[in-house]
Structures are given as structure tokens and as C-alpha cells.
Amino acid sequence: xxxxxxxxxxxxxxxxxxxTLTITCRGQRTLSWVWPExxxxxxxxxxxxxxPRPSRAPEGEAETGSQVGTPGAGVVGDHPxxxxxxxxPASVPVQRRGVGILECPGEPGxxxxxxxxxxxAKGNDTGYYRCYYRDIKAxxxxxxxxxxxxxxxxxxxxxxxRNRGSNGxxxxxxxxxxxxxxxxxxxxxxxxxxxxxxxxxxxxxxxEDEGMVWDSKRGWSIPRQTLDSRPFLIGIYxxxxxxxxxxxxxxxxxxxxxxxxxxxxxxxxxxVELFMEEALTLNCTATVEFNxxxxxxxxxxxxxxxxxxxxxxKRNSLSRFxxxxxxxxxxxxxxxxxxxxxxxxxxxxxxxxxxTQVIVYEKPFISLDYRSGPVIExxxxxxxxxxxxxxxxxxxxxxxxxxxxxxxxxxPEFNRMRLHQHYNLEIRDVHPEDAGNYTVLLKNTxxxxxxxxxxxxxxxxxxxxxxxxxATPSNPYSRGSRQTLTCxxxxxxxxxxxxxxxxxSPCGLxxxxxxxxxxxHL
Length: 522
Hints:
This protein is mainly beta. The chain folds into 5 domains: 5-153, Immunoglobulins (Immunoglobulin-like), CATH 2.60.40; 170-256, Immunoglobulins (Immunoglobulin-like), CATH 2.60.40.10; 261-361, Immunoglobulin-like (Sandwich); 365-462, Sandwich (Immunoglobulin-like); 465-516, no CATH class. It has 2 helices and 39 strands. The strands form 11 sheets. Strands 28, 31, 32, 35, 36 and 37 form a 6-stranded mixed β-sheet that branches. Strands 1-3-7-6-5 form a 5-stranded mixed β-sheet, with no helix packed on it. The protein is elongated, with a radius of gyration of 39 Å. Residues 48-92 have low confidence and may be disordered. Pfam families: I-set (PF07679), ig (PF00047), Ig_VEGFR-1-like_5th (PF22971), VEGFR-1-like_Ig-like (PF21339). Residues 43-89 are annotated as: Disordered. It comes from Salvelinus namaycush (Lake trout). Keywords: Immunoglobulin domain.
């Protein structure tokens, strides 16, 4: 298996705000796309829904931004973009913002193809666009996925502000005791922007220090000791100046946090079975060091389309540690909610995943079948033998085993028999009288469901020779006399009897002669 490929020869590309971005990915398996702006929900498009298809640049002229509206075409882009001071090119009409996914023609060796179309792009659409194999759980760039970084050049919003919460322009950078560098994530929509870093103590102060590194896709990286040496630091922010206008990023507060995760559990621990319209509740709990930051993420069937899922996060401070809890709830489940539910707990140092299976049934049912066929065999004296059946049922039915027409219970005659949790019947110290017909009966009285199955048990008895048990020392017989030797054998199935005779002479025993006969007399 080779990784999917994006038809761009660049590691990143630049488009203008309000343009349409089109990226095509091909691979050997079924493909899916993810994009940086999670509030945008993708929709499947047909060719007719793909929107207008602007003409290509004349031959010999470079195209600016991305190929617009042509499914299956490669992505092209110049870096930097021509005409940057003019803002959005006049030739590109403003379009409704949205993400569409198109099927496109494959090619030899890569039969699967998906095209992502982003219309009306904004600065917040800047980031990584990832194409990956949908049916493989591990998403690894270069193995099962391919990525492309896209700058949506928005001169009115040069700093990327995707997650603006109730605190407005205030964000927090969490660092652990082991952190050697701090990343200030003042991401930009304009890749060639000249960005400076300021410390906010009593007054803003330009920070210029050895070891600082700027990356337009990550922000500023600062050595830890640079900030540790400033005890009165309030916060950090980035600033850029363009055509006499000053732009400022969010103000970042720096907070030390723990990193220890002591335990991680998903409840219920076993798989969950429900009927339609019942409620599902899953509890994901991480036991952590007091001020350890934990981010929970859930994946479940139909995540992008399922709006019936509720997720609540809580923190409980206990005497020696903190419980970070995430609770997923669906008040009324449907059959489409069947599948794998995965809770991911992400701390500063690690990511942990736990998963459980949820199965939703339309109505009660019982399925009963043989495990080893209708006739099975045991051996006399066998320490333990189990009569096994295959059962699939919900809810769990009542179970009864019968030997013949007698219910197997705790009566003394059945003291060697034991019913196990998985509907199986165990017989200990197998006796000949254990042979016979056994019937398993499954009942769901409330739903008027009943299933039964009969198994025939044969008890094999190893061959035994009666005369061997009562043998007496050999007596001499007269030469020439007629004698009758008797061998009485017993066993199930009936044994074959074989006679062996060794002639005697004064010099010793001669060779053995063998005679097989079903008759016990010789």
C-alpha cells in the first residue's frame, strides 16, 4: 500500500480571501478529507454543483492561488501571491462559504479519487488540509495520509483567530515542568508577514533574544529560560505592521501545568447493548495531577452529521488528585448509532485512547445454533466435558437444560452437572449413564420468544477385557488335548478382538502369530 497523493508539487500554497480552493487527492483505498475550520460541514457534490469554472490563465502566465472549480485538476499556486496589495482580485466574485467533496476519475495504481472544493475562503480557513484512507484507523502522514498547508491571504485579518471564545482576544499557553521551549501560536494568513513578539510586563516590550525561531505555520518558538527570567510577565502577543497599519494577535497568558496522568477509564468497560429510543451514556474519566490540562475528544458513528449527541466536561478536585470527566449522551438511540465509540484524552505529554462497542437493536431476538453439530462425543472418566451452543440474543434470555424430559437442576442425580454463564452445560467425571439427548431451552417471556436445540451425547468407553480382571495363573494342559480360550471384551463403540499366539519351544519363544476375529473364542 502506498500513501495517498495530493496533486500539488508544493508543501504549501497561497490563495486570496473569497477565492475558491480546489484540491484533488488520489490513492489505493477509499479516501476522506479533513480541513482546519471544523465549523464547516462538508457536503457531497455532483459536477453540476461544483460552481463556476473560471478560465485558466493564458499559456505562459502563472496562475495565482489555486485551480478554481475544476474537479480532478491539480492545485497550483505562487508564493508570494501577485497583486497582494490590492486585496481580493476583482476578477474573483465573492461566493458563499462552504466545503464540498467531489468524486473524480482515478488513474492507474490510484483508482480512488476525491476533490475538496472550498468556496468563499476566509482567513480562518488557513491551515492543514489532510486527505487520508478512511478505512484505516491510524492516520499517519506519508503512510496513510497526505497533507497540504494552505494560506488564505486575508489582509484585513493577517493573524489567524479561529477559536475566539468568551474571553475574546485572551488565550492561554500551558507549559509543563519538562518544557524546554514555548510556542506562541500567533499563526498568520499572510505567509511573508514580518511578525515581531512583545512581552507585556508593566508596558509592552519588544522581545529579541537568541534562540527565538519564527515559523509562519507554527508561530514563535522561545527558549523556556527567556520567560523564566521575567518574573513580572503578564502575557505575550505578536504584532505586524503593513502599509502603516498595526495588527496585533491575541494576548497569550503563560500558565504552568502538571503532566501526570495516573489512570484513564471508559465506563461501561464492556460493550453496550440497547434498544431503539433508549438512552446511551458513556463516561470517560482521567485521574490526573491537580493542574494537569486534559482535552477530551470523542469519535463515534456519523459524528459530522449526528446532532443528537451531547457531551459535557467536568473537573472534580479531590484530596490527592483531580478527576477530569467527559460524558457522552444520546437520549434516544437509533440503529445508525451502532458502532465504535472512542474517547481520547490529550494531555501536554501524551494521548490516550479507549474504545467500546455500542449495539442498537430494533427489537428483542434470540438466535440459537450448534457449536459442534447435533451429535457430540465424550470419553468415560473425562474430568470435564462441555456441551457448547452458539447464542446471540438481546435481552439475555432465561435458560434451561434438559436431559431427556428431566429438567437439570440441583437434585443429587445432576450434582456432576453445572450451568455456565455463556449458556454452556458442563459434565464432570463423565459416566456411561451421561449419554443421551440434551435439550437447551431459551425463553424471553416478555417478548414471547422461545428457542430450543437438542444435542445427542455419546459416551465412549475404552475397551476392557473381563478375563484380565479375574485371571488366574496358567495351568499346564496335556499334549494333544483340546482347550477353549475365552476373551470377553466390552467398550463403546464395540471393540475388535485380536488374538496373538506365540509358540513355545525348549529354546524359547518363537515368532508371534496374529489373528483378528470378532468372535471371542479361539
